[in-house]
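Progress narrative, work stream C.
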Amino acid sequence: MLKRRIFSIGITGVLAMGAAATARAQVASLVKDVQPGANSSFPGGAVELNGALLLLMDDGTAGVEPWRTDGTAAGTTLLKDIRPGPASGAFSPQQLIVSGNIAFFSADDGTTGFELWKTDGTAAGTTLVKDIRPGAIGSFPILGAVLGGALYFYASDGTNGIELWKSDGTSAGTTLVKDIRPGSSSGPQGPLTVAGSTLYFPAYDDGTNGIELWKSDGTASGTVLVKDLNPGSGDSNPTSLTAVGNAVFFVADDGASGIELWKSDGTPAGTTLVKDVLTGSGSGASGSALAAFGNILLFTATDGSSGVELWRSDGTAAGTSRVMDIWPGGQGSDPINLTAAGAGVFFLADDGSHGLELWKSDGTAGGTALVKDIQPGAGSGGTTEGFLTAFGGKVLFPADDGSHGLELWKSDGSASGTLMVEDLRPGAAGSSPQWVVALGSTFVSVQDDGAAGAEPWLLPAWALDTTPPAVTPTVAGTLGGGGFYTSDVTVTWSSVDGDSPILRTTGCSPSTVTADTAGMTVQCTAVSGGGTTTGSVTVKRDTAPPAVTCPANVTTFSSSSGGRNVNLPPATATDAIDPAPTVALSPASGSLFATGVTHVTATATDAAGLGSSCVFDVTVVVDQTPPVVVCPADVTVEDAAPGGATVSYAAATATDDHDPAPALSYSTPSGASFPVGETTVDVTARDVAGNAATCAFKVIVNARAGGCGCGAGTARGSPAWSFALLAFALLRVARGRARAVPARTAAPAGTST
């Protein structure tokens, strides 16, 4: 028994044998229907803390409150009803921020108003940090960033307006950093960004400098204006602050160059315009999206010759250039959601042909490409309201392929590795993913399956798998020639994915081919978390040899006792599978056969190597007697033209003791042109043994009457012609007289006449 492993992808014909398919396995599992029924709990603000996920949800009874989940229904519980009853203690959307072993958030217990709270993931550890603005109004904390183990945020104590604060999680350690704009007006005007050991943010001081770039080291004295980019009371309005190493990139308007890309190391001298992308007062980087990628920055901008496209910068004017004009011309591809992951930056863009789709760039034109046209054609697979979240060099994001609605997708940056995680809500509606965060080695996303509303769902670690399974067949049977099996053939399958489980299979049960076939294709399709693989194998089975038919026995003759070479008639063969089996004769046709009887074996062999044979005889008889040949009578043709005549004559005949039809040949064939006069025709008769006999006969061609054969110069009417006529007339007269003279008696011997 031979075993052979064969694997191929892509099939032209399929015969699946055995069970059709396994049951469908679901990738994501509902963590808990927090607000039972079709209503949504609207989860938000999720962060991982101490092995659990903290998030804000509304169960329909307690309002929006902090919850904790370990990814199971039993482990998903209300952390604390901060404001007892249906009113919400927290508000959503807001982002919880982790610092060390605690998470900060803003909440209202119904007495203090919205203030800074913290939690360690337990009910007892979920407490008010400080009532910054005593009374029911609240300070409305706006959480920012963590630096040096402290949380930095904005809040209003009712006296100083919204200003920069910090907290170590204790009431005593929660203090105003600086009243940037003295009095009840507010100083900070935008998000907080950490670069190195410095906190950067836009702020408005006492009205002298406008909204400009500020920095802080957490002390009042270290919280200062970095540089007045738009001198005087004008606003440079720094936005999109993005850290690259210890520097911070941002876009701002200095009042002369428009909104352009800037860079700062925290010093006035080190805060400079990187490049005036759109020369003059026009804004090249208005609304720009920025993303750090290694030691460079990718951002969006327009130089006026193209629309808003992807650019790169190393912080110098010379090193700031457009990466690629994705939508050539002035329209612009408008890249959004720039997200660094692995060896590139993912983003959504529209090249004018494929709609808004997923792209990836390494900062070079050659390394910038459409990852996949998820919704083929001009339709958009991506959404402007979506997200791109990086995990381990890959991204998760919502997309719509035009058939399944908006569902959760994943990508490793390749077209084959860009896949829908799961069609959680079958049909065109889609599950509309809202966000996804890590929980240990798993992931939690918010999706709506159409039954439970928007609720938390748990994705296993292998949900990020983008490598499809390996599907390998094992073919067992007796292997003959040409890839044919000469016995029953059993096909079994192995489906393996080292990164995720096999979710379902189709056609992968063992199957047996019991009928002869020139090619039966069997396939197995396996689906894992990494995609779908279809393996196929073509089985050829042939167990019946061809049928061979020999010609009749052959008798031939030789003029020599040494035998003769004999050309043999062919044997024929038919086969149910092979349309043209090979047939071989032994001895071969044309071989020298000895006198007497020789057995010839005809063997037919099909493509599987199966063969059958038959035998016929070749008899060589010695024959040294030539045939008897009889020529036709002489042939006379009168009145021929001077050049001769075309003469047809009767065939000679030949008989032989052994050869029923000896071959005849003529020295001059019948129907040839014969000259005037007498021509001898030789006839040869040769039998199959090579014995020959000959005879001959004459063909006589007489000249036409009036012809003299004088050749050239005797043309009609010429003197020679007249002379020839006279001579011919005299000759006729002489012949007539001769006929009239009686025969004379012979003269006696010795006499003359």
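Work stream C, second folded protein:
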Amino acid sequence: MAVLKYAGTNTAVDDSDIVPNTDLIGKNMTLQASTLTLSLSSTPADTTYVKGTSSIDSVGITFAASLASSLKVTDVTLTGYVDDDGTAPFAKIGSNSDSSLTTSGLVSAIKLYDGDTGALISDTPQTNNLNNSTGTIKFSNLAWNLNAGQTKKLLVKTNLSSNPTSGSNDYFSFDIDATTDVTALDSSSQTVNSGNADPNGATNPTNVVTVSSAGTLALSLGSANPIKKAVYWGENDSLFTVYRVRSTDEAFMIDRLNIVTATGSEVVASATNNIDSVKMKYTNKAGSSLTALGSLDSVTGSVSFAFTGDNRPYVPKDSSTDIEVYANIRPKAGRTGTALSTLGSDVEFSLDWSNGGDDDFRAVGDGSGTVLTNADITDSQKAKGNDHKVYRVYPEFIQETVTSGSPVGTKDVLKFTIKAHGLADSRLLFDDRPSAAIRFEVLASGSQTATDMTARLFDAITGEQYASKTFSNGQTSVAGARASITFDEWDKDVEIAGGQQKTFRVQVGFIGFTDKNDQFQIVLRDTDVNTIFRYVDGANSNEQNTIVLNQAKTNGFWRLLPMEGPIFVQP
């Protein structure tokens, strides 16, 4: 018995001098046994793969150790379930129409991984009874460690066999069927089994792997596919077509792909006379962007691209890849003659995925080795990209800002820049009446009594006058009497070299706009059936072609038209 005394004396301390002088009660202590709880991981979810695919994530099961002790998992037994139509109940062997269906018939190898770190736990099962009614595979002598209170994921990876499926698809799943199918040791080397079983639902599984007999490919134009446009002699890497190839259930390697221009002798001649080479840009399995180069056959208008090994275009599983088709346009060198028909620039053409023989296309499944040809492609627009038209040099119209006002006096009604797209040896030339013309339509609502007005075309930078035109009926746009301004008699030759540009302004002397809300506007429209633009494209008279642009020849190719001047309104 202990007695508390005052220091330096034999006198015992009185109870009343002790603070507190009541009972002291400690906290409750809980003794907890070592436990292990299993749950189904959210990843991987249901997946579909083609037979022969390796290293697929089949199921994830989480292992949660209690706070009582760390655990070392030493044994795991998995139970396999199969079905041939994917509906419960699944079975360990045989299903519906295929009594011989087994997990081992669908899966050639099983490996256990730490789903958090990616480390391999085991790839050597102690026993494998997935080919019979036992339906289990056991991994022993493991050393997979969980700290006290830690949760980790066991990831089951499989290699699919190349055996034929029962039909188009077969299905399998894995689960831990009994609490004794997991054995672990705690920090006292005591055996701990899982506290629950069947986290994946046993015969009614949550996560299922679908084994497909073969993957598929679908083809469409890519989102970056260009609209129809003009291109010029010597233009390199002109994008003609973008195709999107989409896979389902399996990745594919493309071994062969044919590109062809549209049918018809004139179209083939135009394409082969204008295209020096065709370039294909694509991505391989390593993610590298690669290119291939070929030339159109002068008779068929087609080019075949063949690929081998790691240089093949790659379509990822359940994803897509874009294949871009470019043309390098032939420059002046190598061309003969002066007429457009001889030079092959008179007919627009496209570069298309060949819709010819089945052997024009060949792709191989990355897992199954299944070969697909043209006949196997789901086609949403296989044969046709957008048309392109080749010019030695062509104009781009860029509208500049002009302030509107009232239609009184003399004012600038439109300001614009013409940029010549072409090599330096080409010219966009206005040199005489037959070969020089710019035509504007007049939209007006002025006096019904028409009085001639004069329009003038100037260099917007130097102020030099290039042309003038007197036009009638410019005050009103009544039916069948809409006025136009056509500058087809030029005061001097004007040229714009390829790659250069020149800015113009149009000036009008207004007459007859006297009433409130009278309006005036000029426009340049590529839907006009009349000639809206005419020029010569050569550097000298021996190499010239007169180019006429109107609705039939420009509609859809000139994306910056129409060009509409400001509206002048009488207040």
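The chain has three domains: 36-212, 216-391, 395-569. No further action is required on this item.
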